[in-house]
Specification:
Layout lengths: L6 H29 L6 H12 L9 H30 L8 H14 L1 H16 L4 E6 L8 E6 L7 H17 L3 H26 L9 H18 L1 H12 L10 H12 L8 H31 L4
Antiparallel strand pairs: 1-2
Helix pairs in contact: 1-2, 1-3, 1-11, 3-4, 3-5, 4-7, 5-6, 7-8, 7-9, 8-11, 9-10
Length: 313
């Protein structure tokens, strides 16, 4: 049986970089809708960001994800592909066995669990940078009346100078635990999320591939990746909302004491609809982002393995 392979990690890095470039503007909109205040809907959020921060506002905090999420996706694809390959080989006893849906599901769950170790700090820094110029509600105490009246006003703050400053600030104020704020919500999001990511992708690639072809075309990969991304991100929205709120918390305020507390307070204050805030952006953003990710991954993997197959001159 073949062992651990590095090719998938390299191809995953390329796919991850492609997905960040394509998906970051809508990711900023999604984060502002889920964790910010003062936005009526998706269009209002987009117009507000553009009016207050110009086009650069949509790319706020992109430098860190471009470097780190590429590595994160490298780990995701590397773990998934190697775990799936090893499970399938162990089950069938042969090197090139076809994985079953249960193989794909198990590899997806393992990936969702392990990837949180890298993904949680990356997401936390990204969200803190995205949220720091978002409008927030603050209490304005009228001292002349003895603090009896409170008025909500919109304000905006710049807390971090960049990703490195953000990491230093979080570690100084909250310790290593602060970097993993929202990890529980991320586990609940990613374990089922990756199942609804890789399983539809595998099925769609199989359905889109003609019988006389052994591998899917670039168009099939693009479509399968985009559809599976829209499905996965759309269904992951409720826990994504909780994760975003937990990770943006602790910046200038501490409102939540964990996943359960965040769910209860969010539901009590804003109703059930709060858990579906940003679902349209998530689904719409999921298509081009994941289409670019899977296409970058598959094309890179094909190029790497074609080069390896070439005979030495």
């Amino acid at each position: 049986m073949s062992g651990f392979q590095v090719d998938d990690f390299i191809a995953g890095w390329v796919g991850g970089a492609a997905s960040v470039i394509v998906g970051h503007p809508l990711d900023t909109v999604k984060t502002r809708l889920q964790a910010g205040h003062g936005y009526r809907n998706t269009l209002h959020c987009i117009l507000t960001i553009y009016r207050n921060e110009n086009a650069t506002g949509f790319f706020k905090g992109m430098s860190f994800p471009l470097a780190s999420i590429a590595v994160y996706n490298s780990v995701v694809f590397g773990i998934f592909s190697n775990v799936q390959r090893l499970i399938t080989q162990y089950r069938c006893g042969q090197e090139k066995a076809v994985p079953t849906l249960s193989d794909v599901a198990f590899a997806s769950m393992v990936t969702g669990l392990i990837s949180v170790g890298i993904g949680c700090p990356v997401d936390l820094v990204k969200i803190r940078l995205q949220m720091q110029t978002a409008p927030t509600f603050q209490a304005n105490v009228n001292l002349a009346s003895g603090g009896a009246s409170h008025k909500n006003i919109l304000s905006s703050q710049t807390v971090y100078r960049g990703p490195i400053d953000c990491i230093r600030s979080v570690l100084r104020k909250e310790g290593i635990y602060g970097m993993y704020r929202g990890a529980g919500a991320m586990i609940f999001r990613d374990i089922p999320g990756y199942c609804l990511y890789f399983i539809p992708y595998s099925l769609l690639c199989y359905w889109f591939t003609p019988e006389d072809h052994s591998t899917p075309s670039a168009l099939s990969v693009w479509l399968a990746g985009g559809i599976s991304g829209a499905i996965s991100w759309g269904t992951a929205t409720p826990m994504d909302v909780v994760k975003s709120r937990l990770q943006s918390d602790g910046d200038c305020q501490n409102k939540y004491n964990g996943v359960k507390d965040c769910i209860i307070k969010s539901y009590h204050n804003e109703g059930m609809q709060v858990f579906f805030r940003g679902i349209t952006v998530n689904a719409v953003r999921g298509f081009p982002m994941c289409a670019a990710m899977f296409l970058g991954y598959e094309l890179s993997l094909k190029a790497i393995r074609s080069r390896q197959a070439e005979p030495d001159v």
